[in-house]
Amino acid sequence: MNMPAKKTMVLEEAFFMPVGEQQVFAVLHRPSQVQPSLIVVLCHALAEEKLWSHRVYVKFARQLADLGVAVLRFDMRGEGDSDLEFEDSTLVTRIDDVRAAVAAARSKAGAECRVVLLGHRFGGSVAAAAAAQLREQVQGLVIWDPLPDSADYFQQLLRSNLTTQMAIHGKVIKTRDALIEDLLNGQLIVADGYGLHRNFYQQAVELDWSSDSSVFTRPVLLLEVAKAGQTEPSDKLKQLLNTHASCACEVVTEPPLWRETRQFHQEAKQFAAKTLSWLSAQWPGAVS
Amino acid sequence: MAGSGVVNQKIVTLRNSAGQALYCVLHAPDQASFPAPSLAILLLSPGVKMRVAPHRLYRKLTQTFLDRGIAVLRVDFHGLGDSEGELPEVQLDQLYRQVQLGRHVGDVAAAINWVEHELGIRRVLVGGLCGGALTGLLAAEFDRRVIGLYTIGIPVCLDGTGQHSADTMTRGQLGSLRKRYIAKLLKPDAWLRLLSLRSDFRLIWRSLTVASAARRQRQAVRKSEGLTPAPASAPASNLNPLFPRAFFALLRAQTPILLLFSGADRLKWEFDEKFAEPWAAGLAPYTAFTQVCLIEKANHVLSDPAWVAAATRQTAAWLDRHFVDARSA
């Protein structure tokens, strides 16, 4: 896609939005000289993955706003500058936060705006679950690096706990399966400094957004990160493509911007380009 | 504000000298107990993990300061977190190097100015984790409003030097490697790797000859400039040249410095071998102002709750020792 020339000034407003008795940190990016017709609500990845990819989100938000699209970024409770300790947050609190973010975005950017949820990795799973609940309030869904299997994802997340065990005990004294058993028995399990609790874990692994047809009642774009040699969508995503006419899926090449590498990740070029192209095709004129 | 454990938070957007907006979060102590705070701490963005720090470490530490009437301002530097600005580096080690050379010192000055003008607080502590700690040190060197330096895992060396790691490893690191190499003598896989020329021969050689290398290094003594005492041995090739000067400037001003280190982190070895040992004589008169604490087995970011608890205890003790009077002065 040919990127439109930069032409607008962007306004940014950081604020706390109330969700129940708590506060959620948010930043609204909006063009100053045009009334946006589209709002993208960004749903970040989980825990430390959020921090590694944060700057990518910030720059993409500014890029979108520069192209006439309003963007709301926010920290889900338990993360970033929002209230709640991580161990007190759950999938339910995250979905509630997305709902509040959509309401705040509409209130600030214009009630007539179409709303697109964009989520990265586990943030994509949260966005999908929220979209299913919000029904006609959400007109589009984009997921960067979708995670159809939450249980497998949480297994990977527990790797860092094993590393900590090695540091403390010189060996692994509890395998990941044993950790999950402890988790299910009510123990707090720490991964990368974040306390995982049974409620969150159970809700997360039971989330099967890819089997929920109400997720696909709107245009959906899934951008899958290519594994070695991969050129076509994985079988799971192909199945979604075949089942839902509203679903598009592309394989992109992106570095693992959600974890520590030698690179300083400030942008995700293919994610951004494919997303802009898709938004322009879905809503002509919304991206100027 | 229920549920977070941290009260009275407010978003602050201030501008640095280049006009870039820096996004910060201010936490005020309990109004009833501390109606007019006279001391603040600036917790500075560590590396690229913005103003919350890894696993929200800064939020976890905030209450310790608030309990003592110290306001907390968590700062995003330009080009990082939510703040405006662009950083040109594509490699993290190059970015870290620019941080270590003081890229964000001006942002700290802007934040201290904001604290003084908007809150009426004229004395501050600065610091944080890793790059945040070092930026605090470099900013404090020239700002008399800084009355304390708070550091967790402060780096004394420069990243991104382009040098082979064997040249820049500490004796502690090399000693640990030597033990591992010796243990590998009994492993067929290791011999296969060695004989197939896939081993790092330079690193192996250096780890086995570290003692003689240290002797050679001591022979080349170089005096530092200005008021910084001369080291007893040649500075390490990757030592941050700004570190000794800034550190001694703070000590001459009798500024308390807390140095928290993690037991499983190379940074403690680097601090000892590349700064504390060569400058031992120069540091000796200032022991009352420096407090070094080691959190056993901890990793660089203190990712286990027990390590955070240990850091919190040491922080509280340091604050109580040095700043009980300052907060009400």
Largest sheet of chain A: 8 strands, mixed
| Beta-strand content estimate of chain B | 15-25%
Strand content of chain A: 15-25%
Sheet bearing the most strands of chain B, described?
8 strands, mixed
Mean pLDDT of chain A: 94
Most extensive interface: pair and counts? A-B, 40 and 43 residues
Helical/strand content category of chain A: alpha/beta
With strands numbered from the N-terminus, the spatial order across the biggest sheet of chain B is 1-2-4-3-5-6-7-8
Shape of chain B: globular
**Unreliable stretches covering 5 or more consecutive residues of chain B:** 1-5, 213-225
Distance between the termini of chain A: 13 Å
Count of helix runs of chain B: 13
Order of helices and strands of chain A: EEEHEHEHEHHHEEHEHEH
**How big is the Rg of chain B?**
21 Å
Q: How many individual β-strands of chain A?
A: 10
* Record field, number of beta strands of chain B: 8
Describe this structure in words.
With 288 residues, chain A is an alpha/beta fold. Chain A has helices at 47-66, 91-109, 122-134, 150-157, 159-169, 176-184, 198-206, 235-243, 269-282; strands spanning 10-19, 22-31, 38-43, 70-74, 114-120, 140-144, 189-191, 194-196, 220-225, 247-252. Chain A is 39% helix and 21% strand. In chain A, the strands form 2 sheets. Chain A has an 8-stranded mixed sheet, sandwiched between helices. A two-stranded antiparallel ribbon of chain A has the order 7-8. The two termini of chain A are 13 Å apart. Chain B is an alpha/beta fold and 329 residues long. Helix content of chain B is 40%, strand content 16%. Chain B is built from 13 helices and 8 strands. An 8-stranded mixed sheet of chain B has the order 1-2-4-3-5-6-7-8, with helices on both faces. The interface between A and B is large, with 40 and 43 residues.
Outline:
Chain A is of the alpha/beta class.
